[in-house]
Amino acid sequence: MKYIALLIGMIGLISCSTKEPESNSDVSPFAAGGKYEQELSKELETFQKEEEATRKANEDKLTDIEFEEKDFDFGRIRVESQNEHFFVIKNTGKKPLIIENVQASCGCTTPIKPEKPIPPGQKDSIKVQFSPFQGMSGLIEKTVTVKTNTFIPVNQLFILATVE
């Protein structure tokens, strides 16, 4: 009796798994390559047009930035030591470069931004101070997020250190 019930159950599973879809609504829109793909293409095209319009509307306010480096390794340092590095930036655009905000990923890292706009073609720097505290050890990576009036408004700087 147990074997008959098991056999009937297996036949039911087989018949369910070989069932053909009754309509196109059962087929994945990705596999179908149909309406869903067309809708995504239209949304992407609309997004790109809006982005271009925003860019053109703000073009008179935006400039470009170049970093001499985005990563710096302090090497081996001690707990509670004071370490600093200057990330040099250059305004490669045609409008004054404004460093709107700099923010560190941790309280042990303090970024200091230029207060005045950087004229086109000129350089300045973002000072980053790193002071590892008691309990930190090994390889440490911290980030500093830089927000500017550039076409790509957010950049990240990275500092590394091996704390002993």
Model description:
This protein has helices spanning 2-17, 29-32, 35-58, and strands at 65-67, 71-77, 83-91, 99-104, 109-112, 123-130, 138-148, 154-163. The strands form two sheets. The chain has a four-stranded antiparallel β-sheet with strand order 1-3-6-5, with no helix packed on it. A hairpin with a 5-residue loop joins strand 7 and strand 8 (154-163). It contains three helices and eight strands. It is α+β, with helices and mostly antiparallel strands and 164 residues long. It starts with a helix and ends with a strand.
Quick synopsis:
By secondary structure, the chain is of the alpha+beta class.
Helix fraction, binned, reads: 25-40%
If you average the pLDDT, what whole number results? 83
Strand order of the largest sheet: 1-3-6-5
Q: Kindly report how far apart the N and C termini lie.
A: 72 Å
Overview features:
164 residues; alpha+beta; four-stranded antiparallel beta sheet; 3 helices; 8 strands; 27% helix; flat; disordered N terminus
Write the layout of secondary structure elements.
Elements: H1 2-17, H2 29-32, H3 35-58, E1 65-67, E2 71-77, E3 83-91, E4 99-104, E5 109-112, E6 123-130, E7 138-148, E8 154-163
Parallel strand pairs: 2-8
Antiparallel strand pairs: 1-3, 3-6, 4-7, 5-6, 7-8
